[in-house]
Amino acid sequence: MTAGQALFVGGSWVEPEGGHYAVVDPATEETAGWAPEASPGQVRAACAAAREAFGPWSRTAPEDRAAILGRAADLIRRDLVAHAEVARAETGATTGTARGMQVGVAAARFRRYARVEPAEWAIPPQITEAGPMGRAGVLGALAVRQPVGVVACVTSYNNPWANAAGKVAPALAMGNTVVVKPAPQDPLSVYRMARALEAAGVPPGVVNVVSGRSTGVGEAAVESPDVDMVSFTGSTAVGRRIAEVCGRDMRRQLMELGGKGAALVFDDADLASAVAGIGTTFSFYSGQICTAPTRVLAQRGVYDRLVGQLAACARRVKVGDPREPDTVVGPVISAAHRDRVESYVELGRKEGAVVVAGGERPDVPVGFYVAPTLLADCTNAMRVAREEIFGPVVVVIPFDDEEEGIALAGDSDYGLIDYVWSGDVARAFRVARRLRAGGVGINTVGRNMEAPFGGFRKSGVGRDVGSYALHAYSEVQSIVWPG
């Protein structure tokens, strides 16, 4: 691993004024590398560099910007195995997840935004009558997408490659410049991304990366007068604080926050499909994913069978070293987070939930492991059913009929992605339209990577992914002229 990683500011690699701190491998508890601790002054310098670079970059032809993103995608793909090893070491992801869902998705996102799309579109002419504004005539109009400016990209720890790429690539494609503040637990991957962009020819100051464990690093980026927009992925509590800062200066925000995905499983559902989908909570990033179907609402006719099959799934998956090819469940990100997840399981017990599977720490000598855990006989009033646990823990709540299921799904502070499993496609779509969530999966946990992504309520503000990200990282300007 890289020792003594430098910051990337204004096109230069600079030593951090706050020194370095150890990045811990969650699987081995050993040091995976040394990350830089930026000072608030260095963060402000990064924002100023991005401001200075914004004018020339925003005027660069979209084709030229796209070419740089395409080269970056190729460079990331070329070194995928080496990048994935770093990602695995600092996040605890399994080798397959690190290669396919972290680095692989990042390369795909840069490739996606290397495709130039029209940034303007015509509006039908308008015939105007004579009046205070002038003589009668015809007014033509054009809507033009303009870059927002400097974007502070504050990324999450659960997927440092894909999450950062999902912000940086569309922002750069639209002509913005960026200051990336990665999560303190696993910033090394983001610096590798910056190196790929540098090698691809991104001009100095267009991309900057500053990291640190201190909250002052993120605060300096969010509060900088040079920043025009903040794109944040993380907890609702932190998102609220960022929104308060942005609101004072009316700055743009894109917030992808917490989730407590409701999975409605009806009596006529294909249980094998439902169990496979819900079971991803036990395996995918060890449940550290906001889109996970963690709150299962099971209709009474299928409740017992579903609980039994989910319990069998939880017991069957292998927990252990993410480097081993047959490992399904790796560690969570840190000892502190393991303690937090375990405390929720204990809270569930006290609240009256039945621990059907898991609930005990796995017998693995080192590493921050949590056993895949299933809590049954829950109610929607329990904290384990209302709060985001962010670990391999699933709660199951029974319901009687469609109306009750919909009501239970909607009784939540969150609304990111919900799920419906039913053999009646008409009912599945009918229910989906009534769920207050930014996305709904019908008989699948898969995602269409062009579909808009974002949440209702406390799950976020705004939408990105695909063409929607180009809208998210742009302002729309109207130009009107006499016909």
Short structural summary:
It comes from Streptomyces levis. By secondary structure, this protein is α/β, with parallel strands linked by helices.
Structural features, described:
The protein is an alpha/beta fold. The protein has 2 domains: 7-257 and 459-482, Aldehyde Dehydrogenase, Chain A, domain 1 (3-Layer(aba) Sandwich), CATH 3.40.605.10; 262-450, Aldehyde Dehydrogenase, Chain A, domain 2. 40% of the residues lie in helices and 22% in strands. It is built from 16 helices and 20 strands. It has helices at residues 40-59, 62-78, 80-91, 95-112, 160-173, 188-200, 215-223, 236-248, 271-278, 280-283, 300-316, 335-351, 383-386, 402-410, 425-434, 467-472, and strands at residues 7-9, 12-14, 20-24, 31-36, 120-128, 137-147, 150-154, 177-181, 207-209, 229-233, 252-256, 262-265, 295-299, 354-357, 373-376, 393-399, 417-421, 439-442, 460-461, 474-482. It has a 7-stranded mixed sheet with strand order 14-15-16-13-12-17-18, sandwiched between helices. It has a 6-stranded mixed sheet with strand order 9-8-7-10-11-19, with helices on both faces. β1 and β2 form a beta hairpin. α2 (62-78) runs antiparallel to α4 (95-112), α3 crosses α4 (95-112) and α4 packs parallel to α5. The chain is globular and about 70 Å long. The model has no long low-confidence stretch (mean pLDDT 93).
